[in-house]
Design goal:
It is built from 11 helices and 6 strands. By secondary structure, it is of the alpha+beta class.
Length: 465
């Protein structure tokens, strides 16, 4: 039996003489083994049954050293000491379950960018026809190799689109990290200030309850009129309501922080006080800084660039899509042929006009959304700067009223101990001082939160302004 020799089309487009059948089988086996060795394999990934445990201090330090964010201050993490707001911000970026999910989502876009950079695989078709009747006795073979040429012509635009989308995803993730860090700092300041207010409110509640009980006993003895009892009762009820509300607000803030960090709800962190707030600055200069530094604005610009590339791709697709096929065949009479064919779409009615209209309208939508974000950023910065200035002025006014009142309370208390004044007068003075202290603590909380909000709105830390 003679070995059949013919032509073979290789995957790189070369046409070579066919080797003898045993050798062809061995070569085909080697080629298939090489192709299969480069294929991805399946690995199961079961869903977790419990939340991911909170990392230890060493793991946090390692993760913080690997963190690529340039918007956070480098700070030492010591879980055994009171945690400053900047340390909590860093921990939130590392451990937040929401950020872990966002990073996984950003990985999908990165994979899509990788996919866009790959060349399309050629298509191969192989046919065999074995005669069972007629004068010809040879088995007919046919092989064809096809290339999608339109994919090659639009590859550059497709890669630009995918890369811009990946850059937008990275910037969106960085902006979400910045927002998460700011939320952790805001909750830390809120917890510290609410703790101060809750302590003062508990002290005021105890004082009003004591005054009410003494008034009740004096009224029962006939030393005071019944009309003197009602103001004490109202004051005690108001103080109790304020103390309960502050206790509830503090518990909510602690729960929100634990949820943000991925901590067990029963854990209570020891938080250090935030640094004193500074002046807000000029809103116009803050807006210029925000335009250059806000990651969400940069993400929108990348999204606009991606959409612009999509529009260019849609414009390219209005032209004929070309496909090239190289073929080799041998018929039952032993006639061998080599050929080529080109196929393309005739732009007669569609011409991709619908896709062009959609991509053009989408680009205009993104342009309007970017303009809207700029307008909102400018308005937010102006409002925050005004609010901070008002809070600073109000705090100064209350602080100026508190010190004289504190001196008066000390004098009335001394006079009450000497018997020169009624004890109720000293009680009223002490309660007035407590009310001012609680008001100052509430203003300090608002100032701390507004300063964090201002840094979030600008997009960078205060020392970079």
């Amino acid at each position: 039996m003679r070995a059949r020799v013919g032509l073979e089309v290789m995957s790189d487009g070369l046409i070579l003489p066919l080797a003898p059948d045993p050798l062809r089988r061995r070569l085909l086996g080697v080629a298939l083994g090489a192709l299969l060795s480069g294929c991805a394999s399946y690995r199961p990934a079961p869903l977790p049954t419990d939340p991911t445990p909170f990392p230890g201090q060493d793991d946090l330090k390692t993760a913080a050293a690997r963190l690529r964010s340039t918007r956070l201050r480098p700070v030492e993490i010591d879980l055994a000491a009171p945690l400053p707001p900047d340390a909590l911000a860093l921990i939130a970026v590392i451990t937040s379950p929401a950020l872990k999910a966002a990073r996984a989502k950003a990985g999908v876009v990165e994979a899509q960018a990788f996919q866009a950079g790959l060349l399309p695989d050629p298509t191969i078709s192989i046919g065999i026809d074995h005669p069972y009747a007629g004068p010809d006795t040879l088995t007919a073979f046919s092989q064809a190799l096809g290339f999608d040429l339109s994919a090659l012509t639009s590859r550059r635009v497709v890669r630009q689109t995918a890369n811009a989308a990946a850059e937008q995803a990275r910037l969106d993730l960085a902006w979400q990290e910045w927002q998460t860090a700011g939320q952790a700092r805001l909750l830390a300041a809120r917890i510290v200030m609410l703790t101060v207010q809750a302590t003062l409110a508990a002290k005021a509640r105890a004082a009003t309850d004591d005054m009410l009980m003494r008034t009740l006993r004096a009224t029962a003895r006939g030393d005071l009129k019944a009309d003197d009892l009602q103001p004490r009762r109202i004051a005690a009820a108001d103080a109790a309501d304020r103390a309960r509300n502050l206790e509830k607000d503090l518990a909510t803030a602690r729960s929100d922080l634990n949820r943000l960090l991925g901590l067990d709800p029963a854990v209570r962190l020891n938080i250090a006080p935030p640094p004193p707030p500074g002046p807000p600055g000029d809103p116009r200069r803050l807006f210029e800084t925000a335009k250059a530094g806000r990651l969400d604005l940069a993400a929108l610009r990348s999204g606009y660039a991606s959409q612009d590339a999509k529009l260019r791709q849609a414009l390219l697709e209005q032209y004929p899509k070309l496909g090239l096929t190289l073929s080799h065949a041998s018929d039952t009479a032993g006639v061998k042929t080599i050929g080529a064919s080109v196929d393309f779409t005739l732009p007669l009615w569609n011409r991709n006009r619908g896709a062009i209209a959609v991509e053009s309208a989408t680009r205009e939508q993104l342009r309007a959304e970017y303009d809207q974000r700029l307008s909102e950023t400018r308005a937010d910065l102006a409002a925050l700067a005004d609010n901070i200035a008002i809070l600073i002025r109000q705090r100064g006014e209350i602080a100026a009223q508190t010190e004289p009142l504190r001196d008066l309370a000390a004098k009335t208390e001394a006079a009450a101990r000497r018997g020169d004044l009624a004890e109720s007068v000293a009680d009223t003075a002490r309660q007035a001082v407590l009310d001012k202290d609680i008001a100052l603590a509430a203003l300090d909380q608002s100032l701390a939160e507004q300063n964090v909000a201002l840094e979030l709105a600008v997009g960078t830390l205060r020392e970079t302004w």
